[in-house]
Amino acid sequence: MHEDAPMADPANDFIRDYQTLAQQSWDAWTRQLQQQQPQPTVNPFFTPLPAPASGNDTLERTLAGLKGYFDWMQGAAASGAAAQPVDWRQQLQQLFGGAGQPFAQAFGGIDSAGAEGFSRQWQSWLQAAQHSGFGDLPGAQGPIPAFGLNREQQMQQQAMSAAVLASLQASARYQALIQRASQQGMQRLQDKLAEHAEPGRQIDSLKALYDLWVDSAEEAYAEVAMSDEFREAYGEMVNTQMRVRQMQQQQTEQMCQQLGVPTRTEVSSLGERLQALRREFRASQTPASADHADEITALRRELAALKRQVADRAGAAPVAKKATPARPSTSAVKKSISKAPAKAARTAAASKAKPDAASKSRISSRKRK
Amino acid sequence: MYTPLRIDPTKALGDIATFQRKLAAGMGHLRGMREPEYANTPRELVYSEDKLKVWHFTGHGKTTAKTPLLIVYALVNTVWMTDLQADRSMVRNLLEQGEDVYLIDWGYPDGADRWLTLDDYINGYLDRCVDAVRQRHDLDAINLLGICQGGAFSLCYTALHPDKVKNLITMVTPVDFHTPDNMLSHWCRSMDVDLFVDTMGNIPAGLMNYVYLTLKPVRLNQQKYIGMVDILDNPTELENFLRMERWIFDSPDQAGEAFRQFIKDFYQGNKLVKGTLEIGGKPVDLGMVTQPVLNIFAEQDHLVPPDASRALGKHVGTTDYTQLAFKGGHIGIYVSGRAQREVPPAIHQWLSARN
Hints:
The complex is a heterodimer of chains A (about 375) and B (about 350).
Chain A: H1 10-36, H2 57-78, H3 88-96, H4 104-131, H5 151-194, H6 206-225, H7 228-259, H8 264-285, H9 288-316, H10 330-335, H11 343-351, E1 362-367
Chain B: H1 9-30, E1 43-49, E2 52-57, E3 69-72, H2 90-97, E4 101-105, H3 118-137, E5 142-147, H4 149-160, E6 165-171, H5 183-188, H6 193-200, H7 205-213, H8 217-230, H9 235-249, H10 256-268, H11 271-274, E7 278-279, E8 282-283, E9 293-298, H12 306-310, H13 312-315, E10 320-326, H14 332-335, H15 337-352
Parallel strand pairs in B: 3-4, 3-5, 5-6, 6-9, 9-10
Antiparallel strand pairs in B: 1-2, 2-4, 7-8
Helix pairs in contact in B: 2-15, 3-4, 6-10
């Protein structure tokens, strides 16, 4: 080999070739699956409006998820992730962090789905409003007094503008929480990896590293998602989007009324009346004995309540100052397990238990006198 | 000083090559693949009304049970999770145990069903289904097996119509909706459900599915499909995977009024355990459930946390209460290998002791 000749890098050549092949493969997959599933977009909070040029959002998200994973593996291998790093934390940031990180889609699928749909909805409504002569959107910068023949429409447009802005703000708030979850997931990943530093516990494959990241991301997401802040943001996002949608429906119905087209409200109203008539008809067909059955059930309910009261008093007597639960205590339940008629079932089930008894489902019973 | 990352470069490249090879080959396997069928255990139609159907399963084995068992599934998703595929069919396993199995298929609600209430479902449809089975067998009471939301319905029904239920089994049934680990309940607590239903009418299945996916977004939107690549070259496993995908995403819309009531009274108000629930103007008192109760829940359930189900023991009036904690998740309790071995036999043995 000539000394000045560049060193061949079989790994990089391999990856370059592979990237070409991979791209062809992804393209083929996309074509194949899009042919098989020509479904309209499913957007979480809005029914489809204009069909997106790209076809199937759900399919694209799935493919993007797979491709993100594949790109990440390729990038990790090409960047020498597999080599012994000097600073693994820094390396981790390179692998998972940054705006271009391949897993943005995984979380991005959540935070952007509503926002994308909303944006599309907004653009569609804007165009429709302009085409229908509503003009520009007054009130987007704040309420303006309206007057004249089109006063009602102007007021509606202002209300719509305010609702859209409120919804965008709510979506942004929600999105920020998703981003926070994503960042906390990275921190958790570092913490988990630190526990794998000893020989014998080290992460030895890209898949294992990915799975650990998934665990970390889900844990962080769950923590954020169970917070009061998230609950409020989630509710606000849904509620504001519903307000926008409701206003759109109202405007559409007004146009339909002018054109003599039956509206959803009218159809729905008919449905409600029809359902009420069906109930009345059913009730009129109910034999008189059913009324007696209701009476008997009511009497039984009272009897059950009385029994509970008696049981409560009996249970409360020994410990007068302490509130006694309406049902037997846990210890009482445990003591009665062996008396339960389910003993046979329990025994039979236990006899079929596999050697790994710890993984077996657990049956517990109680029988009260 | 050791580093936690010890990835062999050759192995990493090998993993990439394997992934890509499986992906490329997978397209060939997927092309022309038919929609996976469910188990389709032989069955006969015994009652229908509007979109609802009651099926009676006709297995090959001999029925030994004296009292028929009516399965009440949830309104979300289709009932075929109970009969997913031949070797993962709770229905088939119950038949093999000797049970006489009926199943309510709620169907796919459309605009005509927008105003169906919980009263219509529980005191209407469900009651008439129970009557149909009772009449077929000339019995005063039958056994009920309620699943998930269907379990909550079954509890309400049993409390309201105690004479018609002999034994009650609940599976992955939410009872206390305010346990601290209930993510769905947590999220919908700040929702304006009236605005939501007034605006949406019926609730689209796609929206419901989207919300379920966001409970574990990375796992369900990405990791699951990366796992799928591993089985692309295994036609049997791929078919099983696609069958499950079919079940997950082929789901019915929710009738608007029933959805409104269920979210407000159960998820937001937690009225079932507070004792303030009313269905059709009649109070639902769990203390009225004096029949034997078998409560089965999944210990790794992310949709119905175990504690949400366990709470039943504190509220039912029965003196004969049994609970089975299954090692698995909300879906695994029907389709995992362990579920086939453990759940139907446990149900059958429990019922046998009480028939």
